[in-house]
Design goal:
9 helices; binds pyridoxal-5'-phosphate; alpha/beta; Aspartate Aminotransferase, domain 1; 359 residues; three-stranded antiparallel β-sheet; Aspartate Aminotransferase, domain 2
Length: 359
């Protein structure tokens, strides 16, 4: 198989063990003589996967008993709508830290109009930092944040103490670091970065916050429907859930989220140190807000004309997915949980080799 150092931003590199288990289950699920995509989701064998997945989430993130974990369709983008439908009665507050945060805000506005407020934004510097020193309105039904900004490489590294119920889109940093779930009312995200493949969305919700809004909720948009039915009100996306389950097993084998976090810090430190040392490159995110998951950098202005040359140089050496998002430019190396240190070292070697050809 061709060697690829995969830095894609999502879908992205996954643990080899999860892919191997997926292939096996596609061929013959638990010795049933059938593929996992051919069996009933009501079968005992499938229900065992759902239960195991729930247990692993609880164990890895130390999720308290009064929270429910849901596996839904629709992507994180569907949660931009489900969150306000289920939680907003009078007012909601949003922190704008990038395009995804903006989309969540826009969707909530469709429902709540001016009652949905933006408390702060980092749009003035192309979302290169996390706003600080703003006030969270106490009378908001919830305060929505995006903990990792995939496109810009900024991350909120702490669990905020919020006077309003805290809701977080953790699509691109879930399971990358320990999180105090009890500080959040609801956490959601698409699985396709750190916890599997596209097609399943996770929602971790404190059960008592539901049922407080006066509007009638369409059945499929009501979290309580999915809680009541163990995420099987309609046919669940079995294959993505199976890959998620296998990915969580792999995380557990890495020493859990705590072990994975240590690896993530090591990988990111290696790469940021090289960006800071190498004369050709400069990081784009504010130092204190640098993401452990998406490492964004550009060519130093003196060498701006070398951007395409570096992309070609890196591609020839097996680097995949390091072109920055079109709204930022430059480069982005996504170093999600399953990205091996070997890939980061290969990228660093490539940056150093390129430097020698220029400086
Ligand atoms: C932070 C964040 N939120 C939301 C999304 C959208 O996720 P989905 O494609 O599952 O709707 C993405 C996708 O990259 C993301 O990075």
């Amino acid at each position: 198989m061709k060697k690829a150092y995969n830095f894609n931003a999502g879908p992205c590199v996954l643990p080899k063990s999860a892919i191997a288990a997926g292939v096996e289950a596609l061929n013959d699920f638990k010795g049933s003589g059938m593929s996992v995509i051919e069996i009933s989701h009501r079968s005992k064998d499938w229900e065992a996967v759902m239960t195991e997945c729930d247990t692993l989430w609880r164990e890895l993130l130390h999720i308290p008993d009064n929270y429910r974990i849901l596996f839904l369709g629709g992507g994180a983008s569907m949660q931009f709508l489900m969150v306000p439908y289920n939680l907003m009665e009078r007012k909601a507050a949003y922190l704008e830290t990038g395009v995804w945060a903006k989309k969540a805000f826009t969707e909530a506005r469709l429902l709540g109009g001016d009652a949905v407020v933006k408390v702060a934004s980092s749009a003035d510097r192309n979302f290169s930092y996390i706003p600080k020193g703003y006030e969270i309105p106490r009378d908001a039904d919830y305060f929505h944040i995006t903990t990792n900004n995939t496109i810009y490489g900024t991350e909120i590294h702490e669990d905020y103490d919020s006077p309003a119920l805290l809701v977080a889109d953790m699509s691109s940093d879930i399971m990358s670091r320990p999180v105090d779930v009890s500080k959040y009312g609801l956490i959601y995200g698409g699985a396709q970065k750190n916890v599997g493949t596209a097609g399943v969305t996770f929602v971790i919700v404190r059960e008592d916050i539901l049922g407080r809004v006066s509007r009638p909720l369409p059945t499929m948009l009501d979290y309580r429907t999915h809680i009541k039915n163990g995420s099987m009100f309609n046919t669940p996306p079995v294959f993505p859930i199976l890959i998620m389950n296998e990915t969580l097993k792999w995380i557990k084998a890495q020493g859990g989220v705590e072990g994975i976090h240590r690896q993530n810090v090591e990988k990111a430190t290696l790469l940021y140190d090289e960006i800071d040392r190498n004369k050709l490159f400069v990081g784009t995110a504010a130092q204190e807000d640098r993401s452990l998951m998406n490492i964004c950098f550009v060519m130093n202005h003196e060498y701006a004309d070398k951007e395409d040359a570096f992309l070609t140089f890196a591609k020839e050496r097996g680097m995949v997915g390091i072109k920055g998002h079109r709204s930022v430019g430059g480069f982005r190396a996504s170093t999600y949980n399953a990205c091996p240190t070997e890939s980061v070292e290969a990228l660093i070697a490539c940056m150093q080799e390129f430097e020698k050809t220029i400086v």
